[in-house]
Amino acid sequence: DLQGQLRYNKDELARGIASGGFGKKPPTEEEYAWFKKQYLKCDLEFCGRLMEDHANLDFRDLIPTMRLPILNLIGGSSKCHQIAGMTYIGDHAPNAKNVIYEDFGHFLYWEDPERFNQDVLRFVQYVDGPDSNPPMKDF
């Protein structure tokens, strides 16, 4: 029961979320502590409802209707989600691109910040070019 864990076992739940967000290389104790501190700043009841909602809602029918360019950055070693579910967006949105970080998990910005920042900056520059809706297949 997620809501019960949020109320009664905050430390263990925060540790599990931090651990689950990393890819092949587990977080250090310092990283656990940092993520726990950030997580415990949140309204945990709201976080639990948000986690349940986004885990249980199915938006697959909406993805083909998305027309803006989408850069879908994926942790190939995520413990949070299956790769097939994550690549679905890039495979089914008409103007999307999947970029997979093979050894990393859900926290790409933390685990590989240089590549993450380069990819995001390149995407922003690409979509801010002369074509207002450039084809992601050329990204």
Overview of this protein structure:
There is one protein chain. This protein has 139 residues and is mainly α. The protein has seven helices and two strands, in the order H-H-H-H-E-H-E-H-H. It has helices at 2-8, 10-21, 29-39, 44-56, 83-92, 108-111, 113-127; strands at residues 70-75, 96-101. It has a two-stranded parallel ribbon with strand order 1-2. Strand 1, helix 5 and strand 2 (96-101) form a beta-alpha-beta unit. Helix 1 runs antiparallel to helix 4 (44-56). The longest helix is centred in the last third of the chain and has 15 residues, at 113-127. The protein starts with a helix and ends in a 12-residue tail after the last helix. 18% of the residues are buried. The mean pLDDT is 89.
